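CDP-diacylglycerol--serine O-phosphatidyltransferase
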Amino acid sequence: MRFRKMIPNMFTLGNLYCGFLSIGFAASGEYNNAAILILIGMMLDSMDGRFARMLKVESSFGKELDSLADIVTFGVAPSFLVYYTYFYQFGLLGFAVAGLFPLFGAYRLARFNINSSKSSTNYFSGVPITAAGGILAILTLFGDTLPEIITTVVFTALCFLMVSRIKIPSLKEIPLPKYGTIITIFLGCLLYIIYIGSYAQFPYLIYIATPLYIAFLAYRFVTWKNNKKNEE
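Structure:
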């Protein structure tokens, strides 16, 4: 039973480690690697909660650990990535502005944690930090083809959207096979295009995380179909 409780937390810690590695790659000038590690973190983040529910081992400890991991991988790491790829040219001001992203993200996470029992499962109040960090990572990947002003506008908008009260549709109640496969194919094609275009050597974690995520989606698809047949 104790091992079952550890499984979701292992994915959460993997998410946190991806955030740490992303910061390191960004500081070393390997921006594509840094961005892709954030995307890998998104994969792991989408798995820990589902595994906790599947194994019936949800806990307050897991939720708190997940929030701590999210602020690093989708708050601190994207802000460093944006600073090193664009805001660095504004000097100390750019560094200060980049630091606002994890501040807004932390506020959003804290508000979500205390209101999660009261909120609806059909929508989020404000943009989740996971989505915001992922959007910044993808913007960085296409940084050479997009005007720099777009990065500034999106960065600013995401900061305020995270703490806004705008209702964002939630996908939690949608069966995973309906959208998980599409997300996986999109990420796979995206990573392949970037690899062909840059010839960069991506972190070895991608060769572990991606197959695991695909296997997870396949398992969910099989169990979902079996449950549907049983209901019929």
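The longest strand covers residues 123-125.
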